[in-house]
User: Fold this.
Amino acid sequence: MCGGIGTSIFSTAWEYRSIVHHVQLVEGANAYNPTFNNSLQQMQALGMSQNQTFGFFNSMATQQAAQLGVNDMFYISAGIFVALIVLIWITKPERAGGDSAAAASAAH
Assistant:
């Protein structure tokens, strides 16, 4: 059950981060950006129509945004993993008292 909950939280957060990165990537794509206009002209010189160039640009931005979203989720997972390592490290294990037979059975 926890795996299913973790998977749904992870995928929802990934989707949200991908949307945020997509917005950030395409915010500079406008008629006033000479680099964007040059890229569109080069794609149209290859034989693409204007709609195809916009679609191609959007699909590239979507792919890059998804990868950036995965990177964000990896960093979050790594932070949680390090926090759990620290938590395990600072906790003390419970020791069984005096009897070696009781200590041996407590280990299993």
Notes: Residues 50-90 form the longest helix (41 residues).
